[in-house]
Amino acid sequence: MGAALQADGENEVHNGGLKHQKKEKRSMDYFAGLDVSVKETSVCIVDDTGRLVREVKVGSEPEALLQVLTPGQAFKRIGLEAGPLSQWLY
Predict the structure, then answer these.
(1) Which residue, of 31, 39, 76, 77, is most buried by count of CB atoms within 10 Å of its CB?
(2) What value does the mean pLDDT of the chain take?
(3) Could you tell me the pTM of the whole model?
(4) What is the secondary structure of the chain as a DSSP string?
(5) Contact partners, residue 53, CB within 8 Å, separation at least 6
(6) Measured at the alpha carbon of residue 27, what is the angle toward residues 78 and 20, in degrees to the nearest 5?
(7) Cβ of 32: how many Cβ atoms within 10 Å?
(8) 19-70 pLDDT, tens digit each
(9) In 3D, which of 19, 41, 21, 23 has the Cα closest to residue 32?
């Protein structure tokens, strides 16, 4: 006798009532916040669930920031501190 399979959109229900969550393949959005000072910029990256992905300090130079912000993440938003030291980065 074969097992019946019923899908409710997010879960699969097999005969016997056991539920197995489907693994959803989707791209994750990332958000970054930059706190700029004269020599260093603090960078905090979180995912769309709010989970901390990376927190690092880098030199306040565009090249150093690009190395942190470009590898493999699709940033939905990047927040930049609104202060006199951060204007040149924009």
Answers:
(1) 31
(2) 77
(3) 0.65
(4) -PPPEEE-SSEEEETTS-EEE-----PPEEEEEEEE-SSEEEEEEEETT--EEEEEEEESSHHHHHHHH-SS-EEEEEEE--STTTGGG-
(5) 30, 45, 46, 47, 73
(6) 135
(7) 20
(8) 545 555 557 899 999 999 889 999 999 999 999 999 999 999 889 999 999 8
(9) 41
**Chain-centroid distance, C-alpha 54:** 9
Mean pLDDT of 6-20: 50
Cβ–Cβ under 8 Å, residues 48 and 32: no
**Residue keyed to tokens 């000072």:** 37
Q: What is the pLDDT of residue 67?
A: 92
Instruction: Tell me the C-alpha to C-alpha distance, in Å, between residue 81 and each of 23, 34, 39, 62, 67.
Output: 37, 6, 15, 15, 19
Residue in the structure block whose two tokens are 């300090």: 57
Checking if the pLDDT of 10 tops 50, the result is: no
Which of 27, 21, 26, 25 is closest to 8 using CA atoms? 21
